[in-house]
Design a protein that fits this description.
6-stranded mixed beta sheet, 2 domains, Aldehyde Dehydrogenase, Chain A, domain 2, Aldehyde Dehydrogenase, Chain A, domain 1, alpha/beta, 7-stranded mixed beta sheet, 15 helices
Length: about 450
């Protein structure tokens, strides 16, 4: 880590030079990142295959395409996003100009996650650059090939005093957190997020924590069952369940439980989520594979549980009936295990969810408008879908982030720019009119005028 310290000092100097305050300079930097992303796409796809056994097409649609959308958005919208925003005047300052200026925080630290290593490291970095910051990025060492691919790409795209990729393990991240950054962005587990938050608090450093949690899916009797299982299986099995907003568990009404389970199993079979399939991938490493093994109660397996420890392969596995006492319900799954719980009354279902930490995502399947309204208003979660899964993350105009234990802050599109900016209030006063009643000593006439102007 000692070799990274000069890079931190170089970034302090580079930001102090003021170059990144220029909007055109930022746009050119974003274009260089886009060019590098195109040039390195095959390297990225190969790295992900080495880390996960994941197909190039899956990497393209789940990571690279989303990065291009983010880059294109900022390249097109940055002049407007950066423009000073005029606000309504108050009576005491009618002749002044009132506006808000977005300014960069400075040197930022971005700690990425392993499950989508390119997207979850580079997406916040792109927002940081768009807002005028510099960035030290630390990809997760748990996807080692992806980490090296990111370093190579960013070295080709921008100078290290602008964006520096720190490679290494926990010791590297720990050393970085001892430095005084102007902003920290972390994606990962709640436990590590708490450590990041504590470290940041020592310097009063603002943070965004993109965490996780057990994201529920509710299937009601009014749901289109065949469509629901397609969308649930897709959302759960993308990246073999190693997705922070994957449906973690499924609440199904008792009246449709048997039909749902049968349709679910048929959809899993149809989707060809098998070993060495282009549609599926492996668990990232042995540690996570073994953790998932401990969550499977074999007496409740109604489908799946096929394994290949040599490849860290675990097939889609359906558990039924599941209760909150089962091991699989004590932590975020982050794998292709689907626990099915049964409910009788929707309000009881809501209460069970509300009694636990707020999830990063939630999903509801049904056509009853009153139930849909109750889902949207009664449950607190970062973001979600009605009659779909995952797809809210695909809209750059929707903020992405958690609430409570599932995270702090948000990003994507405009929200990413705002997150990495300090919004500075400015009042620019007129020089040609300066009434004497503003200043002491205050006579009775002046007091009346001031009370009228200030509305008290």
């Amino acid at each position: 880590m000692n070799s990274d310290l000069p890079q931190y000092k170089n970034q302090l100097d580079f930001f102090a030079s003021g170059k990144t305050l220029d909007i055109n300079y930022r746009i050119q930097a974003l274009k260089k990142i886009k060019q590098a992303l195109n040039a390195h796409q095959s390297n990225f796809e190969q790295a992900i295959y080495q880390d996960f056994g994941k197909s190039p097409f899956s990497t393209e649609i789940s990571e690279i395409s989303l990065l291009h959308h983010e880059l294109d958005y900022y390249i097109s919208h940055l002049p407007k996003l950066s423009k000073a925003k005029k606000v309504k005047k108050n009576a005491a300052n009618l002749l002044a100009s009132h506006y808000i200026v977005a300014e960069p925080f400075g040197v930022t630290l971005i700690l990425g996650a392993w499950n989508y290593p390119f997207l979850l490291t580079l997406n916040p970095m792109i927002a940081a650059i768009a807002a005028g910051n510099t960035a030290i990025i630390k990809p997760s060492e748990q996807a080692p090939h992806a980490m090296e691919a990111i370093k190579k790409m960013m070295s080709d795209a921008l100078p290290e005093e602008y964006v520096y990729t720190a490679v290494g393990g926990v010791e590297t991240a720990s050393a970085l957190l001892e430095l005084r950054f102007d902003f920290i962005f972390f994606t990962g587990s709640t436990n590590i997020g708490q450590i990041i938050y504590e470290k940041a608090a020592k310097n009063l450093t603002p943070v965004v924590l993109e965490l996780g949690g057990k994201s529920p899916t509710i299937v009601t009797p009014s749901a289109d069952l065949s469509l629901a299982v397609k969308r649930i299986v897709f959302g759960k099995m993308l990246n073999a369940g190693q997705t922070c907003i994957a449906p973690d568990y499924i609440y199904v009404h008792s009246s449709i439980a048997d039909a749902f389970n049968e349709a679910l199993i048929q959809e899993i079979k149809r989707s060809s989520y098998t070993e060495n399939s282009e549609q599926f991938c492996n668990i990232v490493n042995e540690k996570h594979y073994k953790r998932l093994e401990t969550l499977i109660n074999e007496e409740k397996v109604i489908y799946g549980n096929e394994k290949n420890p040599d490849k860290n392969f675990l097939s889609p596995t359906v558990l039924y009936p599941t209760t909150w006492d089962d091991a699989v319900m004590q932590q975020e799954i982050f794998g292709p295990i689907m626990p099915i719980l049964v409910y009788e009354d929707l309000n009881e279902c809501f209460q069970a969810i509300l009694s636990r930490p707020k999830p990063l995502a939630a999903y509801f399947f049904g056509k009853n408008e009153d139930e849909i309204k109750s889902f949207s208003r009664k449950l607190s979660f970062g973001g979600g879908c009605i009659n779909d899964t995952l797809m809210h993350i695909s809209n750059i105009h929707l903020p992405f982030g958690g609430v409570g234990q599932s995270g702090i802050g948000k990003y994507h599109g405009k929200y990413g720019f705002d997150t990495f900016s300090h919004h500075k209030s400015i009042l620019e006063q007129s020089n040609w009119f300066d009434p004497s009643f503003k200043y002491p000593p205050f006579g009775e006439g002046a007091k009346k005028i001031l009370r009228l102007v200030l509305n008290f």
